[in-house]
Amino acid sequence: MIIAPNVNSVAVLDDDIKFIRLVERILRDEHIGVQPVTTLDVDEAVRVVEKSGCSAALVDIYMYGDCAGFTVIEKLRANPSTADLPLIVTSGAHREVGRKVGFLVKNKCTVLLKPFDVDDLVEKVRAVQPPRAAMYHVVAQAAGGG
């Protein structure tokens, strides 16, 4: 079975289901799908993101009582399939994010601290989405065209 890339969707790695549902509602209005990733297993989270073919990922830092988001970022960057995936850190762990600015810069992460304005979320997600022409080209190639 071949999974077509979901170029107009975003993976959301967060342990807060209410947050994921909120992001789904916000991005649905923008015609952007959401692939929720709520597993405790960091390696499984990376596999889910890799297989989803999403065009970006929102990553919480503090999940399941630990700063697992930093490990997720490291593993996504170490995986050739997700190494260049745009990552948007969406976290309320302001102190931890502040301590790891160098890490986040090195790993090319955009940061959106919680709580954030809905328009800021949409703006950051739109900024990392592929242009419409590129989306159509990818879809056409997947369908066997041009």
How would you describe what is shown here?
The chain is an alpha/beta fold. It has one domain: 3-Layer(aba) Sandwich (Rossmann fold). The chain has seven helices and five strands; from the N terminus they run E-H-E-H-E-H-E-H-H-E-H-H. The protein has helices at residues 17-28, 42-52, 68-78, 94-99, 101-106, 118-128, 132-142, and strands at 9-13, 33-37, 56-59, 87-91, 109-113. A five-stranded parallel beta sheet has the order 2-1-3-4-5, sandwiched between helices. Strand 3 (56-59), helix 3 and strand 4 form a beta-alpha-beta unit. The chain is globular and about 35 Å long. The two termini are 22 Å apart.
Shape: globular
The fold-level CATH name is Rossmann fold
Estimate the strand proportion: 15-25%
Q: Can you count the helices?
A: 7
Main β-sheet, spatial strand arrangement: 2-1-3-4-5
Query: How many domains, in number, for the residues?
Result: 1
CATH architecture: 3-Layer(aba) Sandwich
Percent of residues in helices comes to 40-55%
- Which class do the helix and strand fractions yield? alpha/beta
Architecture blueprint of SSEs:
Blueprint (H helix, E strand, L loop, with lengths): L8 E5 L3 H12 L4 E5 L4 H11 L3 E4 L8 H11 L8 E5 L2 H6 L1 H6 L2 E5 L4 H11 L3 H11 L4
Parallel strand pairs: 1-2, 1-3, 3-4, 4-5
